[in-house]
Amino acid sequence: MKILGIETSCDETAAAVVEDGKTVLSNEIASQIDIHARYGGIVPEVASRQHTLSIIPIVTTAMQKANVGWQDITAVAVTHGPGLAGSLLTGVNVAKAVSFARNLPLIGVNHLEGHMYANWLTGKEPEFPLLCLIVSGGHSDIVLMRGHGSYTLLGRTRDDAAGEAFDKAARLLELGYPGGPAIQKAAEQGKDTLKLPRTWLKGSDDFSFSGIKTLLIRLTQEGKTENKPDAAASFQSAVIDVLVGKTIAAAERHGVKQIIMCGGVAANKVLRNTLVEKSPLPVLIPPMILCTDNAAMIAACGYYRFKAGYVSDLSLDVIPGLKLPVS
Ligand code: KG4
Ligand code: ZN
Known about the structure:
It is a single chain. Helices cover 41% and strands 19% of the residues. By secondary structure, the protein is of the alpha/beta class. The strands form two sheets. It has a five-stranded mixed β-sheet, with helices on both faces. Strands 8-7-6-9-10 form a five-stranded mixed β-sheet, with helices on both faces. Helix 6 (179-187) crosses helix 8 (228-254) and helix 8 runs parallel beside helix 9. The protein binds 5'-O-[(R)-(carboxyoxy)(hydroxy)phosphoryl]adenosine and zinc ion.
C-alpha cells in the first residue's frame, strides 16, 4: 500500500511516498529557512505564500523519485493541525484536490502523531507499550502509547517547549536561526561552565524551561555569557539532563518495553547520545531528517490510521490548535 503524504504545517513544504507504513520511497522537503532567517523567526504570511509556490513541484518530485504514478497510490494523508492556519491550508487543499480528482481516500493526520510515527520508518518495529518523548518547536510531551492510536499524556511543558527554548536562547546569545542547530554547533566548542539549575518539577512528569531562559537573560545582562560556546553548552546540558532524566524515570515507572523519541529537537546529537547512553531500556530514534518536519512521517501515520478505518471526507478542515487525541 503506497501512501502519498503532504506536510505544510509550519515552514517546510514536504511530500513523500511511503510503502506499507515503513518503507520511504521518496521524501522531498523544500525548506524556507533562508527566507525566514533574515527576520529571526517564521513569518506566517510569508510561510503560507511560499507553500503555495512550492507544493506542486514538491508533490511532483516526490512522485517521480518514488517512481510511481497516481494509479499506484492508495490514499493521500495530510497534516491538518496543529500548525499555522495559512500554512496548513495549502497542504489540506492540495490533498483534497488530489483526493477528488483521482478518487483517492483522504486521511487527515495530526502533526504530533505524525512525528511519533517517524519511529516506524527506522527499519525496526517499535514494541508496545512504549513511552514517547515528543520534543518540537511547539511541544515537549511525554506520551504513553499502548497500541496504535492509543495515547496517554503523562507530562507536557508548563511554559516554553524545548525547541522554543533552544530558539530563544540562540536569539539571546546571537547565534543565529534556527536556534536548535545553532546552539548545538556553538556548544561543540564549549563546556558546561555555568552549571545552570535543572528544573525537575519533582512528583510530576511535566517540564518547565522558562526559568532557565530567564536566568540566561540575567546572566547575559551581567556579562557572564560572553563565552558563547560555554553558554550554549551550559544551556544545552541543562535542557537535555532534564529531558532525558524525566523520560527515563517515567518509562521505568510505567514498565514500558522501550523509549522512542521524535520532533525537531530529537535531531540534537547530544540529546540522542545521552538518551541512548543513560536509558536502561531499548531506545529508538528516527534518523535526523525524519525528526524535523517531513511528509514521510505523515504518510506512515496515515497508513496506520487508514488501516484502523479512519478516512476523512472533503469537509476536512485545518485545526491550528489540534491536540493529540489522548485518553
Ligand atoms: O518538529 P519541528 O521541525 O517543527 C515543529 O513541529 O515545531 O521542530 C522545530 C524545532 C525548532 O525549535 C528547532 O530549533 C529545533 O526543532 N531543532 C533543534 C535541532 N534541530 C532542530 N533543537 C536542538 N538541536 C537540534 N539539532
Ligand atoms: Zn513538527
